Amino acid sequence: MYYKVSGVTGKLTGATAASAYSPQGLKATVPSQAPPMIFAVPTKVVSETGSVAHYMGINKVPELQKIFQKTDGAPVHLKRGVMDKMLYRSTMGLTIGGTLYCLMALYIAAQPRKPQ
Amino acid sequence: MAHQAHAYHMVDPSPWPLTGAIAALLMTSGLAVWFHFHSTTLMTLGLILLLLTMHQWWRDIIREGTFQGHHTPPVQKGLRYGMILFITSEVFFFLGFFWAFYHSSLAPTPELGGCWPPTGITPLDPFEVPLLNTAVLLASGVTVTWTHHSIMEGERKQAIQSLTLTILLGLYFTALQAMEYYEAPFTIADGVYGSTFFVATGFHGLHVIIGSTFLAVCLLRQIQYHFTSEHHFGFEAAAWYWHFVDVVWLFLYVSIYWWGS
Fold first, then answer.
1. Do residues B62 and B221 lie in contact, with contact meaning Cβ atoms separated by under 8 Å?
2. pLDDT class for A12, splitting at 50, 70, 90?
3. 3-class secondary structure for B48-113?
4. Strand partners, A15
5. Phi, psi at residue B20, to the nearest 5°?
6. Where does the chain cross the membrane (chain B) (predicted)?
7. Rounded CA separation A74/B213 (Å)
8. Which residues sit opposite A5 in a β-bridge?
């Protein structure tokens, strides 16, 4: 049990360990020196603030819009060049190969089993 | 320099409908080959082709809308109708499974013991994990609405944070449900109770995974500045789908978990 003199009644009363070990609290309540007063911050250009404009990356949409609006006649699925072409070719390869494999598998599956 | 005198979108020729159709062919025949000849090659090939098709088709739609500006107001209206019709078709899909459940549970046959839950079945306590799951999905409905308002108000950081939270809640639901499936005292083979329970909740779980994936794609797009405060239909479609998934769960919870116990 810890004790203190109550600020209200002026009599001895119970206290917590925390207030017994540090009666004025752990943090200095009054700063020893006033903090320096700042009246104005030099204005920053929006592109330099980096607070909202660059949260998780910069905006690349205008640049992509230019790429995809090039009048080169390419359909949208090939508009980005080599990567698109490679992905398209592998997909089409699997499509055609898969169709042939499927037709073969169905032909074999349709053959009657040998009687035992 | 105008190329068209109307506001509609005449799409470029695309190979993805063909590859998608072939993927469906390979998956279905592959399923039959798996059942009869124990080989999963054809079915796996179909699944890979399906994933490639979905990735490239939806990537192209993003290119056409966000980068080429083809999603004018009339085009967006068509996309809205499309999403609403698709969700309506999914409602009917689930209606079928609810019909099956009520058919069996309202008039339980003598083979079940003339009672519901059937004799020998210990149903899950609706006030344990299922109730937590309900709270998780309802909370995710709140966070996704928060995301929508953040996008409309141009609050980039809040939109990203609330959308991430929505996805995490969706993943939490999936993890909890997977654990429930593992720990359940009954299986899909336990008569009509097991069948209706696991088929209805199983398809719902699949839709939660699809919805979470859709939201995750929206998160990537939001980070990459695709959405503006006026135009963000991709996100709205994902949010509609997510609310639909939430409502289906509420019906599942009340009918199968609560009334059905």
1. yes
2. confident
3. HHHHHHHHHHHHHHHHHHHHCCCCCHHHHHHHHHHHHHHHHHHHHHHHHHHHHHHHHHHCCCHHHC
4. A2
5. -65, -40
6. 16-35, 41-58, 79-102, 159-177, 197-220, 240-260
7. 30
8. A12
Write out pLDDT tens, residues B80-119: 999 999 999 999 999 999 999 999 999 999 999 999 999 9
Domain count, chain B: 2
Nearest to B15 among A65, A88, A105 (CB): A88
Q: At B240, is the secondary structure helix, strand, or coil? A: helix
B:227-246 residues touching chain A, CB 8 A cutoff: none
DSSP-assigned beta bridge partners for residue A13: A4
Residues B30 and B135 in one domain: no
Q: Which residues of A46-71 are buried (b: 16+ CB within 10 A; e: fewer)?
A: eeeeeeeeeeeeeeeeeebeeebeee
Parent domain of A10: 2-110
Instruction: Describe chain A by its helix, strand, coil percentages, rounded to 5.
Output: 40, 5, 50
CB of B150 less than 8 A from some CB of A: no
Could B42 and A95 be called an inter-chain contact, meaning their C-beta atoms sit closer than 8 Å? no
Q: Is residue A116 part of a domain?
A: no
CB contact under 8 A, B66 and A61: yes
| Residue pLDDT, tens place only, A97-109 | 999 999 999 999 9
Domains identified in chain A, total number: 1
Q: Is residue A103 part of a domain?
A: yes
- pLDDT at site A8: 76
Q: Using 50, 70 and 90 to split pLDDT, how confident is the model at B149? A: very high
Average pLDDT across chain B, whole number: 96
Q: What is the CATH number of the domain that holds B126?
A: 1.20.120.80
Binary contact (B68, A95; C-beta < 8 A): no
How far is residue A65's CA from residue A44's CA, in Å, rounded to a whole number? 29
- Rounded to a whole number, what is the distance in Å from the CA of A98 to chain B's nearest CA? 7
Asked if the Cβ–Cβ distance from B36 to A109 is below 8 Å, we say yes
pTM score, whole prediction: 0.83
Nearest chain B CA: its distance from A36 CA (Å): 32
Residue of B nearest to A78 (CA): B60
| Segments forming the whole domain that contains residue B10 | 1-70
- Residue A76 is nearest to which of B36, B48, B63, comparing CB atoms? B63
